[in-house]
Design brief:
The structure is a single chain. By secondary structure, the protein is an alpha/beta fold. The protein has one domain: 3-Layer(aba) Sandwich (Glycerol-3-phosphate (1)-acyltransferase). Helices cover about 40% and strands about 15% of the residues. It contains nine helices and eight strands. The protein has helices at about 15-20, 20-40, 45-60, 70-75, 90-100, 120-125, 140-155, 180-185, 235-250, and strands at about 5, 65-70, 85, 105-110, 130-135, 160, 190-195, 220-225. The protein has an eight-stranded mixed β-sheet with strand order 1-2-8-7-3-6-4-5, sandwiched between helices. Helix 6 (about 120-125) links the parallel strand 4 and strand 5. Helix 2 (about 20-40) packs across helix 6. It starts with 5 loop residues before the first strand and ends in a 9-residue tail after the last helix. About 40% of the residues are buried.
Length: about 260
């Protein structure tokens, strides 16, 4: 990717266009298996993660999804690590953001600790040195994020965090906790707002992370300029929420039911 922005140019094949979900998951499983095999051998590194994520992006595109990514220059031009704060809709952002971000600067995620126990996929996530939280005890989760997230940032690794209490196709600012802002303030790094729309991957009926692929919905990622944290961080928190809300409205994402 030579340009800062990214726009899908791959046309879907006949199989992908006709059976988008079947096509994607038939590609996704071998990608994850290969990555897990490398990770178990201790041979899954930053560039491998970005490459695997790129394979996922291309599989989604060949299944008919379109990606529109803008504002990447704000991340690529950072001279320090950051806390990237975003809304959360589906697993799609977790498996595709590394393709767009990792080549510029090292990144990791704050994730549910249950992801570290998923069959096969756990090996990939464990190799990425994420910050794992329970989503059960907010006080303990905050302590974990401040301590472990601070270590990642001190090592030059940016931290991507989704402060909503759960994935949702609607956006409620009241459900966006201040945990990301608090981490940035504690570590002395900027926040990087990210608005995303990834409901093209729907939540699954049996396995929530593995839902139907809906090519009628465009995938959007839009980064905003970094924000320094002043005082108690309230202004930055409000600005991040306003940015996300504004972008979702521009993308036609109204008040939908929570997923």
């Amino acid at each position: 990717m030579d340009d800062f922005d990214y726009h899908t140019e791959i046309a879907p094949g006949l199989f992908g266009k006709t059976f988008p979900s079947l096509y994607f998951y038939s590609c996704f499983l071998p990608i994850v298996l290969r990555a897990a095999w490398q990770a178990k051998r201790g041979a899954y590194h930053d560039e491998d993660w970005a490459a695997s994520s790129g394979d996922v992006v291309r599989a989604l595109e060949r299944a008919g999804l379109r990606f529109e990514v803008s504002g990447l220059e704000y991340f690529r031009r950072l001279s320090t690590p950051c806390v990237c704060i975003a809304n959360h809709m589906s697993m799609l952002e977790t498996i595709t953001l590394p393709y767009f971000m990792q080549p510029a600067h090292p990144v990791t995620f704050v994730i549910k600790d249950s992801l570290l126990r998923y069959p096969v996929f756990k090996h990939v996530m464990q190799s990425r040195n994420p910050v794992a939280v329970s989503r059960v005890n907010p006080r303990q989760d905050l302590k974990t994020v401040l301590e472990e997230g601070g270590k990642r940032l001190a090592a030059g690794i940016s931290v991507i965090i989704f402060p909503q209490t759960t994935r949702s196709h609607s956006f409620d600012p009241e459900k966006m906790t201040t945990i990301g802002v608090k981490l940035a303030k504690s570590a002395g790094v900027p926040t990087l707002p990210l608005a995303l729309k990834t409901d093209a991957m729907e939540n699954g009926a049996i396995i929530k992370e593995l839902g139907r692929i809906n090519p009628t919905r465009t995938v959007h990622f839009r980064f905003a300029p970094p924000l320094a944290i002043a005082d108690n961080g309230k202004a930055a928190h409000q600005a991040i929420n306003a940015f996300i809300q504004e972008q979702l409205s521009a993308w036609g994402q109204g008040q939908l039911s929570a997923a």
